[in-house]
Amino acid sequence: MRIATCVVLESFALLGLTLSLHAQSVQNSPADWPRKSRQDAEDTIASKIDAIRVSAKLPPLRRASPSLREVELVCTAAVTGRKVGDPIFSGLLTYVTADLAAETEAIKVVALGTEACRGKPPSCSDGNPRRLYYPTKRWPRYSVIIELNPASTREKPVYTVGVARRVSAVQEFFAPLGFDVPFKGMNEWKKDVAPECRNRKD
């Protein structure tokens, strides 16, 4: 009788653990993160970018809605743990953080259009700690994409952040026509998108 009771108790304990893990995996799935929470997180990053521009006495950038490519690539970075970038415009940077208020290098690159110097290249002479990353006038917009990272818990949320400096809407629309072979390879990036991130909507 004792053995049977122990088996039943162990079965209930295993079932409880399974349900708990399932609930946690559902909670941590980037696709199941509430839209309002995502928007609030993205607004936090956008405010940080805007504040850095103001502090540096630079004109404001226009915030643009993320492209489908950006949304799917950042989702892929979240669920796979890989770093991704925009293979067409190269304006997308991703990082993982538990602190959305942190002033990361990726945010500085997008906000200032410059990157921190590594070593002592000629472009960082005269005590300048940063060098040009984007030709500012050609990249007047930016977008922010955030996914809840699968490493999150209710107590300690973790985020995969994607920030992208964008060319003008007109340039973005007509850019494929300027390629050596127009439109060739435009959809190659889709092969790297995780299955659960395909056809995502912001």
Summarize the entry for a quick read.
By secondary structure, the chain is of the alpha+beta class.
Describe this protein's structure:
With 202 residues, this protein is of the alpha+beta class. The chain has one domain. It has five helices and six strands, in the order ααβαβαββββα. The protein has helices spanning 2-28, 35-55, 68-80, 105-112, 169-174; strands at residues 62-63, 92-97, 114-116, 130-132, 141-148, 159-166. The chain has a four-stranded mixed β-sheet with strand order 1-5-6-2. α2 (35-55) packs across α4 (105-112).
Spell out the key features of this protein.
202 residues, alpha+beta, 4-stranded mixed beta sheet, two-stranded antiparallel sheet, 6 strands, 37% helix, 15% strand
What topology emerges from the helices and strands here?
Layout: H1 2-28, H2 35-55, E1 62-63, H3 68-80, E2 92-97, H4 105-112, E3 114-116, E4 130-132, E5 141-148, E6 159-166, H5 169-174
Parallel strand pairs: 1-5
Antiparallel strand pairs: 2-6, 3-4, 5-6
**Major sheet:** 4 strands, mixed
Q: N-to-C terminal Cα separation, in Å?
A: 56 Å
Beta strands, count: 6
The average pLDDT is 76
How would you spell out the order of helices and strands?
A: HHEHEHEEEEH
Strand adjacency order, main sheet: 1-5-6-2
| CA gyration radius, whole angstroms | 21 Å
Strand residue content: 5-15%
Count of separate DSSP helical elements? 5
Report the principal-axis shape.
Answer: globular
Label the structural class.
alpha+beta
Spans where pLDDT lies below 50 across 5 or more residues: 1-28
Number of domains: 1
Helix content: 25-40%
